[in-house]
Design a protein that fits this description.
The complex is a heterodimer of chains A (about 260) and B (about 200). Chain A is of the alpha+beta class. Chain A contains 6 helices and 8 strands. Chain A is elongated and about 60 Å long. Chain B has about 200 residues and is of the alpha/beta class. Chain B has 2 domains: about 55 residues, RecR Domain 1 (Helicase, Ruva Protein, domain 3, Orthogonal Bundle), CATH 1.10.8.420; about 130 residues, Dna Topoisomerase Vi A Subunit, Chain: A, domain 2, CATH 3.40.1360.10. Chain B has a 4-stranded parallel beta sheet with strand order 4-3-5-6. Chain B has a two-stranded antiparallel ribbon with strand order 1-2. In chain B, a hairpin with a 6-residue loop joins strand 1 and strand 2. In chain B, helix 1 packs across helix 2 and helix 2 packs across helix 3. Classes of the chains: A alpha+beta (about 260), B alpha/beta (about 200). The interface between A and B is medium-sized, with 33 and 21 residues.
Chain lengths: ~260, ~200
């Protein structure tokens, strides 16, 4: 049977998916353009009609969990979304300025680093884990560092922390090569330690506790590769929200 | 656009269409009403606009809009000068004044910190607030219950140091049915419950 000629050009898109709101900005007086990280479809921008209304404003904020129904007439269109809130969302963190900074940094990093309309369910689940961890002030900074490490992994620039790049040793991995992202052991790295990045033990396994100074080391490590491999390639600086998070963690002596 | 209207009318419609709540179609209706009722509406409106444009200034003390500087609120001796209520924009100040529940002074920040938009403290009227706060007994942060609003509130609370700082309560709106509220508001209200 012959296809109607129009169908060659029009590929209507419609899907429903779990999502996190990454950002929302006003469009006109009543609408909002949201950026979503959906579970199965990746990062999507969409127009939300009535998004500036009192009913919808509470969950049109970075970090809010929603069920999104996305519709577009063609794949090239911006598309429109209707959103249904799930759970309490970022208001659970309103009394914790550090956690708010962590949420903002994660949302800004995800929005800035992920390509549009490319599925990255790993990042969605990492953001889900981070959102849950943000309610626990003692553990979330380490989870945040792992989130950034996972983001690198999803984008194809994962750190290889399984063995020493020089000797193949499995133990005493305390450095990372700033060029390759591969771990280096204490012995092999001794001569180059000024040029290598410190590898905090908590990044090697979930069992390792976090000691003083290690969150800062972890953020230096992931920040180096995010900047060098992801954001430089996009001609963008690292999001300011990440810098603010580091400043706040430093002020709170949590680095 | 009004196809057969002259350039003056088209310009009037185009400018009216930029106002909140008015699109091109409603701007055309508004322009037509103004033109039809020239003496009752158009001329007084033009005079009022010219007068506002000439006389309204930003208060250098609090950042509000008024025809005098300092503004009527800042120069009113009957208002409590020991209280400063911090708001995002003048619209919030007007809303608080409308409610009539507060008789202190104000400070208009002129925006909120926004990590996503890259808007830092230097873009807001923070230093003026810090200077004013040194001589008051309480600063009330009446900022939006949003991520940016609360981030700004925490930042200000840090900056204001020894000055007692309070925030507006979060929870059930007056007349609000619980089954119509979002989960966040219900959770906030539950956490902020008080003895009956």
């Amino acid at each position: 049977m012959l296809q109607h000629p129009k169908s060659l050009y029009h590929h209507p898109m419609e899907f429903e998916d779990d999502a996190y709101v990454l950002s929302a900005r006003a469009h006109g007086e009543t609408g909002v353009i949201v950026e979503l990280l959906t579970q199965n479809h990746g990062r999507y921008a969409a127009h939300v009609a009535g998004g500036a209304s009192r009913r919808m404003k509470p969950f049109l904020q970075g970090g809010a969990r929603v069920i999104a129904t996305f519709r577009a007439r063609t794949a090239e269109q911006l598309g429109a979304a209707t959103l249904e809130p799930v759970g309490e969302g970022p208001s659970a963190l309103f009394d914790d300025p550090l956690a708010l900074a962590g949420l903002a940094a994660a949302a800004a990093l995800t929005a800035g680093a992920l390509p549009e309309r490319e599925p990255h369910p790993g990042v969605f689940f990492a953001l889900e884990a981070l959102s849950a961890a943000l309610l626990h002030p003692d553990i979330w900074p380490a989870v945040y560092v792992r989130f950034e490490s996972g983001l690198l992994q999803e984008l194809g620039f994962g750190l290889d922390l399984t063995k020493c790049a020089a000797t193949g040793a499995l133990d005493d991995l305390i450095y990372v090569s700033p060029r390759t992202g591969r771990a280096v052991s204490a012995v092999a790295g001794e001569a180059y330690k000024d040029k290598l990045l410190a590898l905090p033990p908590f990044m090697l396994g979930a069992q390792a506790g976090v000691r003083e100074g290690e969150i800062g080391q972890g953020l230096d490590l992931t920040g180096h590769f995010l900047e060098a491999f992801v954001f430089n390639a996009l001609n963008k600086p690292l999001p300011q929200a990440r810098g603010w998070l580091i400043d706040r963690l430093r002020d709170a002596q949590r680095l | 656009m009004a196809a057969s209207a002259g350039p003056e009318i088209e310009r009037l419609i185009a400018l009216l269409a930029k106002l909140p709540g008015l699109g091109p179609r409603s701007a055309r209706r508004a322009a037509l009403t103004l033109l039809k009722r020239k003496d009752q509406l158009l001329t007084p409106l033009a005079q009022a606009l010219a007068e506002a444009s000439e006389k309204v200034v930003t208060c250098t003390t609090c950042g509000s809009l008024d025809t005098r500087n300092p503004c009527a609120i800042c120069s009113d001796p009957n208002r409590d000068s020991g209280l400063i209520c911090v708001v995002e924009e003048v619209g919030a100040l007007w809303a608080l004044e409308r409610a009539g529940a507060y008789a202190g002074r104000y400070h208009v920040l002129g925006g909120l910190l926004s990590a996503l938009d890259g808007r830092g403290p230097e873009a807001l009227r923070v230093e003026g607030l810090v200077a004013r706060a040194a001589s008051v007994r309480e600063v009330i942060l009446a900022l939006p219950a949003t991520v940016d609003g609360q981030t700004t509130a925490h930042y200000l609370a840090d900056r204001l140091g020894a000055t007692p700082v309070t925030m507006l309560a979060r929870g059930l709106p007056v007349g609000g049915d619980i089954d119509w509220l979002d989960d966040g508001t219900i959770a906030q209200a539950m956490r902020a419950r008080r003895p009956a």
